[in-house]
């Protein structure tokens, strides 16, 4: 990282704006010393999913949280454009003429940076020497380590590619991050997984989570074939790819024509039925990812001599692999995953890194069990809207609503609606930073009704009917409900439902049965909580406590008291292909255009049944993009 003029900055806690963007998931973050003041993704403001444009709106939002009377001490960009262009140019030349498209794309991105960065800094940064450029993987590593609960930890970053690094291991100690090893482009675990995402008919850079969700339906029959021919994995987790099967280094595609012939079947067309072949492919590549990530985790601990591990990079959003690390790594005493593990989190990491390098105070020692004791404030770092702003939006949309003066009354009213089987949009407090909705911008429902998963999938989210939802669980009840992992505040670990709640046939009795309608296959394995349980009884767990200071905890407590069920279905407040809602108007639009029964927004509850007849005409008319 280039650090200029530090002699004039070394005093007290520094306020730094971090910026990421121009590839995908642009974002901005504002930190003061080791505290996050604000962070948001550009897509939430522009309503373009995965928006890669320069994060003008996110920067404006973050600067509204600049402490009164204070100026920015520095601005940090999350990667080094010169090094990135060096890698892209060399790849383009090596693969000419096929590499021309990726070179052209990179030139456009650099031009955008050169035009937008000076505009963004005009009037907020008086000295160009206070502009710093980190590197992509250092930003990821900083985002994982500095807000973690640990004063010392190994850090593992695994993603597609930054400048040259695709996998890196770091040692974190107070204010220091020291690189210990790396794997370099074109050998990339993230791009390897994206290639399989494309082959299975899903969208690269957004459909990887679908590939992970498809894996439990299949058997890993191609695992050894992949390991023998496509990826050479060493005992320490380092790896090389057989590049004849991949095209991501040209920018044209992620897979070469040989990819389909190797597996004996061409790539699946998007939106077409999913055959058993692709279920087995998904299971096989997930098993390979699990193996590599576990080997890398072991190496990270051995190289650093640490017994705690922090994770970041897009592959760290693979909660199945994270859970394998958590459960199967010898000597591991703690794992913490950055909730915004993708490129958006790079803005936060770059800001933290510069702020702590320039500040005199070291990162404090926390080293406690992970019970929201990290520095991410539950992930609630985005915009907040006042009751006046919310009520004004309701009135502009001519909605009938009920205002609650007491939070306790509202929570019990919401619990009653949920107990009646209603599906609710919940909008309250600060928006989440990162890809997961953690309660403040969520759709909530009772997970027990047999038809709840299909209702939410098909009539609310407008997405594939086979995809289950995440459980929102009271931490104090999670050990009774789940086996193995029972604490996961950011929905980044997978747990398995306790056997006594699993009432249907064993997963092996239906897996590989050749049933191509995945929704029917999913429904054939039943539990007492069908809507949140996958075919293998796994769940992407989110646990909440009263320490989170989120209203969703109080709603869940009231629901538990009313029904005896300490769990709710939680999914992001959006429809397919759309970003999570940010502002009241976004929430109202989504509510009106879907089959949600009610909207809980700030201090207000809006029931669909109480509205005028014109509202009914809008339901189901919302357009969505492929995700």
UniProtKB/TrEMBL annotation:
Keyword set includes DNA-binding: no
EC number(s) per entry: 2.1.3.-
Domain Carbamoyltransferase C-terminal: from-to ranges: 415-608
Keyword Transferase: yes
InterPro entries: ATPase_NBD (IPR043129), Carbam_trans_C (IPR031730), Carbam_trans_C_sf (IPR038152), Carbtransf_dom (IPR003696), NodU/CmcH_Carbamoyltrnsfr (IPR051338)
Group of enzyme by EC: transferase
Carbamoyltransferase domain: residues covered: 16-351
GO molecular function per UniProt: transferase activity
Keywords: Transferase
Family: Belongs to the NodU/CmcH family.
Name used for this protein in its record: Carbamoyltransferase
